[in-house]
Amino acid sequence: MAVRTLQPTIIRSRRVSWTQILIYVVLTLGAFIAVFPFFHMVATSLKTYGSVITGAFWPWFPLGDEPLQWQNYPEAITTIGWDKQWNIYLFFRYAFNSIFVSLVIVAGVMITSALAAYAFALMEIPGKNLLFLLLLATIMIPPDLTIVPKAVMMYQFPNPFGAGSWYNTYLALIIPFLASVFGIFLLRQFFLQIPRDLYDAAFIDGCGHLRYLLTIVLPLSKPALVSVALINFIWAWDSFKWPLLVTRDPQMRVLAVGLQQFLVQEGGTKVQLMMAFSSMVVVPVIIFYFFTQKYFTEGITTTGIKG
Amino acid sequence: MTSQAIAAGRPLSFFSPRRLRKLREAGLGYLFLLPAFVVLIVFEFWPIFYGAYISTCNWTVKGCTKQLGLANYVRALNDSEMWHSLLVTASYSIISVPLQLGISLLLAYLLFQQIRGKSLYRVLFFMPYITATVASASVWAFLYSPDRGLINEVARLLGLPQLKWLGEARGIFALIGDALNVPVPPWLAGPSLALIAIIIYTTWVFVGYDTVIFLAGLGNIPNELYEAAKIDGANGWQLFRRITIPLLSPTTFFLLLYTVIGTFKAFNHIYVMTMGGPGDATTTASIFIFQQMYQYNRYGYSAALSFILFSVILIITIIQNRVAGRAVVYA
Predict the structure, then answer these.
(1) ipTM of this complex prediction, to 2 decimal places
(2) What CATH number is attached to the domain comprising A216?
(3) In this model, does residue A177 exceed pLDDT 50?
(4) Quick one: closest CA in B to A33, which residue?
(5) Alpha-carbon distance A3 to nearest alpha carbon in chain B (angstroms)
(6) Angle at which helices A2-45 and B133-144 pack, to 10 degrees?
(7) Which CATH architecture has domain B74-327?
(8) Is residue A196 part of a domain?
(9) Which residues of A touch B124 (CB under 8 A)?
C-alpha cells in the first residue's frame, strides 16, 4: 500500500518540475521578445552614428571606448526645428499638442461617459434599450467607413474662434473624440454593481440624480474611472491617421505625426536621433504604465473592447 | 405620497406627483445622454449617410460638383489595384489571425498554471500593446533594416541569408524556391516578405492583448471540471483538448471576430513601416483608401472604396458567425 502510493507521487513531481521549467523558458522567451525592441531602442539612442552602422548587434550599450551619447536627446530635439509662432523648439510644440489634445479628450470622455453611463445604469428613460442598442452598433462601424466624410466635414465646419474651418485646428483633433463607447460601457457595468439600497436611501433623503452621481456614484467608482481615463489617454496618445489627415502645419502636429515625418525625412541617416525621439515618446508612457497597469488589464477584460 | 393615492383608490391625474417625477427623470436622463449622443451621432452615424452621398459624387473642395450615380463603384470594381489591395488585406488577415490567437492561447494557458511572477509576465507581454504604434513601428523598421538592422546582423552571425525584409516585394515561396533552386510559378509566389515582416510586428503588438483576454476566459472555467477529470485519470493534453478548448470557445470566438476586424482596419504601423510599398506589396485596403483620399484628393472614389471594404467585412463577419458561431460551446 505504502509503495503503491509513493511511486506515482515521485514520478509526478519529477514530471511536473520538467514541465515547470519548460513553462518558464517559454514565458521568459515571450517576455524577452516583448521587451527587447524597447531595450534596443534606448540602447541605439545612446550610440554615435558610427557605432550604429558598424556594430548593430554589439555593443548594445556602448560601454567600451564610447561613452553614452546623452547629447543625442537634445540633438534630436533641435534637429526637428524651431516653431516661430511660439518661439520654442518644434519638438516641444508636438509634445504640447499631444499632451493637450489627449488630456482634453480624456476629460471630455470622462464627463460624457459618466453622465451617459449613469443614465443607462440607474435612470428610467423611455427608449433606453433602443438607445443602448444604437450605442452597441457604433462599435461595429469600421473607422474606414467614416473617415472620408469626417475629413470632408472638417473642411466644412466653421471655426467659431476665427477664420476658416476646423481643418488644421485643435477642434478637429479633439471634438470628434469626446465620446467613448468603451467608457460608457465600462462605467455602466460598474455603476450597476453599486448596491440599490444606497440609491433608495439617498432618494428618500431627497437626493437628486446629479448629486447622487457626484457625491456617491463617482467616488465609489474610482477604479473604473481610472481605467477609462488611462485607456482613453493611451488611445488618444497613439492616434496618428486622423491627425495626419486633418492637420497641415508643423505647429499642429502631434508627437506621432512628428515622429513619422522625422522618420521619412531623416530616419535613414540619423537612426540614433530617430531612436532618441521614439524613446521620448515611449518611455514616459511605459514608466506610467508600470505604476497603473492593473487598471489597464481590468478595464480591458471587463469590456473586451480594443481600440 | 403616490402609494397613498393608489391605496386610496383615487385616479392619478395627469400632473400627479408620480407622473411628474417620471417625466422629470426622463428629461434629465435624456439630458445626461445628450453630450455623448451628439458626438456619436455627428461623428459616427451621420458620416455613414454623408459618405454614401459623397460616394456618388465627383467631390472637390467645392463639394459635389457632379452627380455620378454608381460610377465610382463601377470604377472601383474594375480597378485592379482595388482587388490587389483586398487580396493583400486578406493575406494579412489569414496569416496573422491564427498566428496571434495560437501564440496568445499558448501563453495564456502557460500563465494560468501555478507559476511565480504571473503578474510580471502579464505586464511585460502587454507592453507592446500600450506603446504608441508609430514609435514601436519605427523601432521595428530599424530592426528590419537590411544593412544595419539587428535581425540581419543576427542572421549574418548564424550564417543565414540576409534579407531585404520590409523592402522585399517578392513572395516568400518564390524566395524559398530561389534558395532551394526550385522554380516557383508566379501564382504560387505567396505573400510578399514585406507583408510577412509586418505580420510579425502585428503579432508582437497584439499577442499581449489577446493573452489578457484569454486569461480572463480561462478564469471563468470552473475548477471542479478539471478536478473531476483528473480523478478520472485524464492527462494534461486531454484536459486541454476536452475541457479548456470547448469551454474557452466563447472567448476564442469573440477574439476571432475582433482580430479579423482589426486586421481589416490595420493602418498606422503599415503606413509607418512601408507606406504600402515596396510598389504595392503591402498596400492593404485601408492604405489604398487613404492614398486615394490623402494623395489624390479623390474623395468620392475613396468613399465608394470604403463602402466596398465595409461590405467585405460585413460578409466575412456574417460567415464567421454562421460557421464559427456554431462551434461555440456555452457552458
Answers:
(1) 0.87
(2) 1.10.3720.10
(3) yes
(4) B204
(5) 20
(6) 90
(7) Orthogonal Bundle (1.10)
(8) yes
(9) 31, 34-35
Q: Do A216 and A279 sit in the same domain of this protein?
A: yes
The mean pLDDT value for B137-161 works out to 87
Residue A11 pLDDT > 50: no
Pick from A23, A111, A155: CB nearest B35? A111
Predicted pLDDT of residue B3? 52
How far is A72 from A279, CA to CA, in rounded Å? 11
A136-175 pLDDT, tens digit per residue, is 888 778 888 999 999 999 999 998 888 889 999 999 999 9
DSSP assignment letter at A88: E
Domain annotation covers residue A75: no
- One domain for residues A102 and A23: no
pTM of the model: 0.88
- Cell of residue A237, nine digits: 496618445
Chain B residues in contact with A125 (beta carbon < 8 A) = 25-26, 29-30, 33
Average pLDDT of chain B is: 88
Instruction: Please name the residue of chain A whose CA is at the shortest distance from the CA of residue B252.
Output: A304
Contact B47 A146 (CB under 8 A): yes
Query: Which run of H or E residues covers position A141?
Result: none
CA of A138 to nearest chain B CA: how many angstroms apart?
A: 7
Task: Give me the domain span that covers residue A18.
Answer: 2-45
Answer whether residue A257 is part of any domain: yes
Report whether pLDDT(B1) > 70: no
Q: How far is CA A116 from CA A209, A305, B31, in A?
A: 12, 18, 9
* pLDDT of the residue at A1: 37
Give the SS3 label for residue B67. strand
Q: Where are the domains of chain B?
A: 14-54, 74-327
